[in-house]
Amino acid sequence: MTTMVNYDTPSPFSDSDSDSDSENFHVGSDLSNSIFKTYLEFSSSSSITAVDLSKIQSFLTSSSSGALSCLICLERIRPSDPTWSCSSLCFALFHLLCIQSWARQSSDLSAARAAARLPITAETAAKQATWNCPKCRSSYSKSQIPRSYLCFCGKLQDPPSDNPWILPHSCGEICNRPLPNNCGHFCLLLCHPGPCPSCPKSIKTRCFCGSFEDFRRCGFKNFSCNRHCNKRLDCNKHNCLEICHLGTCPPCRARDVYRCRCGKKEEEKECCDRDFRCENECKKLLNCEKHVCERGCHAGDCGECPLQGKRTCPCGKRVYEGMPCDGTAPVCGATCNKLLNCGFHRCPERCHKGPCVETCRIVVKKSCRCGGLKKEVPCGTEINQKPPKCRKLCKITPLCRHASNCKPHRCHYGACPQCWLLCEEEYPCGHKCNLRCHGPRPPPNPEFTLKPKKKKSNHHTAYTPGIPCPPCPEIVWRPCVGQHIGAERMMVCSDRARFSCDNLCGNLLPCGNHYCTKTCHPLEIQSSLSEHRKGSESCEECNLPCQKERMPICPHPCPLPCHPAECPPCKVLLKRSCHCSAMVHAFECIYYNNLSEKDQVAVRSCGGPCHRKLPNCTHLCPEICHAGRCPAPDKCCKRVTVRCKCQTLKKEWICQDVQAAYCDIGYDPKDISKNQFGLGLLPCNSDCKSKVQEVDSALQLRKPKVLEKKEPENEKHVSKRRKRRDRIQEGKQVSKPQKLVGTLKRLLLFIIIVAALIAVTYYGYKGLLRLSDWMNEVEVQRAKRRHQRI
Predict the structure, then answer these.
(1) Do residue 47 and residue 110 come from a single domain?
(2) Distance, CA of 142 to CA of 208 (rounded, Å)
(3) Helix crossing, 54-65 with 29-40: angle to 10°?
(4) Cα(621)–Cα(607) distance, rounded to whole angstroms?
(5) Best CA proximity match to 83, nearest among 553, 72, 740, 280
(6) Rounded to whole angstroms, what are the CA distances from 142 to 91, 96, 104, 548, 787?
(7) Domain NF-X1-type, which positions (predicted)?
(8) Same domain, 213 and 280
(9) Range of the domain at 678
C-alpha cells in the first residue's frame, strides 16, 4: 500500500529587504505531493519510505517556512538568491557569493602554507590547494569552486524563482541523478535538496545463501532469510551452520581426530586444520637401503635416493655413471670456473672440493653514476675503498611521492638520500600520515659497493624507506557497539576495537512494542551497502503476551504473542440473554462490540412475548421482548375473576380495576399472591349464608364412622405381660434356614440398589453431555441464521 508523505501547508511568506523587490512564494501540499509522486509509485513500505525521505522533508519544511540560513553570512536564504549546496555529506545550502569567497580565501591560505612549509613553487602550491565545506569539512579541489548558479540536480543554470509551483532553487524536472550503490537506476524525485533516497524499484533477488527468493526494493535487495546457510564448506564434508550471511562461509570448525601427513601422530583438530605436519623427520629407509629420507613429515612415497644415477665432479664438467650412492666423485683437474661472490668473475682455481675463495682479486675499473670519474680497485676489496667524489648532480628520479618537490643532490655511490618531506599520504579513514617520507628509494649503484654504515641506536623504524604508512595515530571519538548517545570514547583511529558501554541496549524489538533489555551489544543492522557486521548479535526475542488494547474495546486479551501489527478481530462467543430471559444468544465479540447501543438492544430481542411478570399483578407483559421495565404496568387489560370471601359470588373485572380496588381498601397489589388475587373484593349476601350451610352438612355426611373393635371374650381376661411374652417367644422360634434366606435377600437387595445407582449416574452423565452438545449446536445454528439475516 502506497503511503503519501504529507507536510503541513505553510502560509505564503514574503522575503523583502530595503534594497530588493517584494517577492511571494507559496509551497503547499500539492507541491510536496508532486515532488514525491513518481517515487511513491514504486515504493511499497511506508516505514522505509519515511526514513528515506526524512532529510528531504526537513529541507522542504525549512525552505517553505523560510528557516534556511547561510552558515557563512548567517543571513536568511531567499528563494531568489543564487545558492550552492554541498554534495558530499551535509547537503547544506549557502549563498553562491558567500561560498565563492569562502573557497577562494581557504584555497589561497592552503597554498600559502604549503609554499612556506614545503620545497615547492607558489604555482604548484596554488594548483594543489584545496578548500573545505563550512559545515561537514568535506574537501574540494580549487577547480571545484562554483562559478554559476545551478539547480539541485545540476541540470539547469539559473533556475526560475518566480514559479509558485516549483521548489526554490529547483528546475522542477526529474532529478535523474544516479542512485547510491551503483544499482543502475536513477532518482525519480523532482529536483530536490538533500541526498537521493534509496532505489524504490522492486526486483526479484535471492538471500545471501541463495535458498530463498523474494521481491525486494532495489535499495535493500541484500537480505538474510534467517535460516541456516547449509552451503557446502571447503572440506566437502560438512555444511555451514551459520545463519544466512554475507560473504564467504567461515572455516569448518567441526572437531575430530586426524593424522598428520606421515601418519605417525594423531591429534584432535578442527576440520579446517586437518591437513597438518608433525615436527618429526621422516627417517624412512630409501630404496638404496643405505640412506634415510631427510624430508620432514610428508605424504606419499619418499622417492628415489638423490645420490643414485649420474654423478659429477665438484665443478660439474665431468659426469660419472654407475657410481654407488655412497661413493665420492673425484675431481676432474679442469678449471673450476664457478661464479664468485662478486657476481661478475669466475673462480680461476682447478676443480676442487669445498667453497671457492671469498674475496675476488681481479682488478676492475669502477665509475660513478654519471660516468665522470673512474677508479681501479680490486674487485673483492672495493667494500673497504672510498669512492671518488663527483661534482655533478644526481640524475636518478626519486621513487617516493615527492619526486617533483625533492631538492636536487650531487652524484653519489650507493642509494639516494632519504626524502625529508612529510609523507601526507591519505589513510582510508580520511586522515593524512604526518611522519617523514618513508617511500621507496632507488637501488644503489651496482658499479661500486659501499661498506654498510653502522645504524644509530636512536634510529626510528617509522622512517625506514620502503615501508608502508603505520596505522593512523589520530585520536577520534568512537561510539559503543550499541550506538548509544553520550557513550563515545576517545580512541586511536586505527584501533578497530569495539567496546560495550554497559548500558541497556534499548533498541526497539521486532514486535514494535517493547525495547531490548540486554546489555549494550553489536546491533544486527544491514546498511544500504548490505555490509553485515561481523560479531553482531540480535536483540532478545519478545516472549510477552500481546498487551495491546483491542479496538473496538473488549475484555478478551489477544491470543497471539506480542506482535507489531494490529490484533486480529476477536472471535470469542459472547452469551447474552434476551431481555425477557427466555433464551440465550451467542454473538462474536467483534460483531457485538461494533454495534451501537441501539443495535445491541435490537439484536438481543428474541422476537417473542416478553414473558416477564408485571410488578402490580399476576399477569405477564404482553409486549414483544424489550429492554428495561415493562411499559404501563398499572394499565393491564387482562380479565380477572373476582369473588367474595366465601367464594360464592364471582364476576370478571379488568385487571387495572382490580388493582385500583385493592388500592382503595389500602392494600398494595404487589403483596397479593396469585391464588388470592381478586378474592374478597365482592361483598357476601343472603345466598352466601345458605350456600355455606349446605356445604357444611355435606361435609359432615362425608366423614367416616369409627367402628369399635370388639376383642374376643377369651382374650379379655389375658394380662398384657403375658401377651408380650407370647409375642417374644414367637419371634424366637424362627429357623436358621429362614434367617439365611433373609440375609441373602437383604444382600441381593443391597447389590441391586448399588448397581442401579451406578447405572443411573453413568447414563445420566452421558445424557447430560449429549444434551449439552445438542444445545450448543442449536445455539451455533441460530447464530449462523442470525448473521445470514444481517
Answers:
(1) yes
(2) 43
(3) 160
(4) 14
(5) 72
(6) 19, 15, 8, 59, 78
(7) 183-201, 235-254, 288-307, 342-362, 400-421, 429-474, 511-544, 554-572, 617-639
(8) no
(9) 614-687
- 246 falls within a domain: no
Task: Give me the pLDDT at residue 444, please.
Answer: 67
**What is the DSSP code (8-state) at residue 277?**
-
- Contact, 91 vs 195, CB < 8 A? yes
Q: Do residues 299 and 335 lie in contact, with contact meaning Cβ atoms separated by under 8 Å?
A: no
Please report which residue ranges of 544-619 form alpha helices under DSSP H. Answer: 589-593, 597-603
Largest CA distance in the chain: 188
Task: State whether residue 693 is helix, strand or coil.
Answer: helix
CB 302 within 8 A of CB 282: yes
Looking up cell 525552505 gives 63
Contact indicator for 574, 592 with CB cutoff of 8 Å: yes
Sign of CA dihedral 543, 548, 550, 555: positive
Query: 455 lies in a domain?
Result: no
What is the spatial distance between Cα 529 and Cα 532, in angstroms, rounded to a whole number? 9
Q: What value does the mean pLDDT take over residues 688-711?
A: 63
- Output Rg (C-alpha) for the chain, integer angstroms: 56
Query: What domain count does the chain have?
Result: 4
Peptide bond into 552 cis (omega under 30): yes
Alpha helices in 320-465 (DSSP H): none
Check residue 312 and report its DSSP letter.
Answer: E
Q: 576-633: per-residue pLDDT in tens?
A: 888 888 888 888 888 888 888 888 888 888 888 887 888 888 788 888 888 888 887 7
Residue 136 has a pLDDT of: 83
Beta bridge partners of 458: none
Angle at Cα 718 formed by Cα 713 and Cα 724, nearest 5°?
A: 130
How many Cβ atoms from other residues are within 10 Å of residue 430's Cβ?
Answer: 12
190 plus 264 within the same structural domain: no
CA pair distance 522, 514, nearest whole angstrom: 18
pTM over 0.90: no
φ, ψ (nearest 5 deg) of residue 255: -95, 140
- Dihedral angle, C-alpha 46, 49, 54, 57, nearest 10 °: -90
Q: Flag whether 634 is in a domain.
A: yes
Pick the closest to residue 492 from 429, 418, 586 (CA basis).
429
Q: What is the pLDDT of residues 289-328, one digit of tens each?
A: 888 888 888 888 888 887 777 788 888 888 888 778 877 7
How far from 516 is each of 116, 483, 506, 538, 618, CA to CA, in Å?
56, 14, 5, 10, 68
Claim to verify: residue 169 and residue 293 sit in the same structural domain: no
Strand, helix or coil at 584?
Answer: strand
pLDDT tens-digit series, residues 254-265: 888 998 988 888
Return contacts of 658-664, CB within 8 angstroms, 24+ apart: 658/617, 659/616, 659/617, 659/634
CA 525/CA 439 separation, integer angstroms:
39
From CA 169, how far away is CA 80, in angstroms rounded?
8
Give the burial class of 247: count Cβ atoms within 10 A of its Cβ; 0-12 exposed, 13-18 middle, 19 or more buried: exposed
Q: Is residue 42 located within the same domain as residue 158?
A: yes
Nearest 10 degrees: CA dihedral of 587, 593, 595, 598?
90
